[in-house]
Design a protein that fits this description.
The chain has 179 residues and is of the alpha+beta class. It is 30% helix and 22% strand. It is built from six helices and seven strands, in the order H-H-E-H-E-H-E-E-E-H-E-E-H. The strands form two sheets. Strands 5-4-6-7 form a four-stranded antiparallel beta sheet. Strand 6 and strand 7 form a beta hairpin.
Length: 179
Amino acid sequence: MDLPPDDQRRRARRADPRLVRARIELVAGPAVLRDYSKSMKHYWSEATFIPDLEDGAAAWHVARRFLELRDDDFVGGFVLRRFERFTSAEVRTWWVNGVCVLIGPHPDSPHGPAPAGIDLAPIAPMIAGLGLPFVTVDLALRADGEWRVIEVGDGQVSDRPTTVDPQMMITALLVLARY
């Protein structure tokens, strides 16, 4: 559901038809809203979480608040995703030329341990298929035991958790970057 940022701001007073269509396609239940670049997860209840997609007025209220907060930083259009329950904090993975070189805590929870045994095999071909020299992939463990990709970044806004040693990270990134 793509809608240019200028059009989004102009339509901030009325529900965007693409958001309405996406809301209907996902049917009832909770959902999460973001734009092509960022979420507003630190404003969870007012600009991210939609408790029930059947409530169009409440959904548009969340979307309007999202637009207010993102303002000129709004990128691409709205992304609406079904809400899922996670049983872990987010984990950040760093990839060079399609190969994961480092797994660590997410910058929002830097003191959490990086879980052992994350099976990256299901996502590795997709990350390699991006053809990018560097990406970060944030994951969280779903209640059913599957790891879900939360976000893929090309490094422009990817942060390093304070608990990940800078030298260790630089070494990991440079080893494969040479090839």
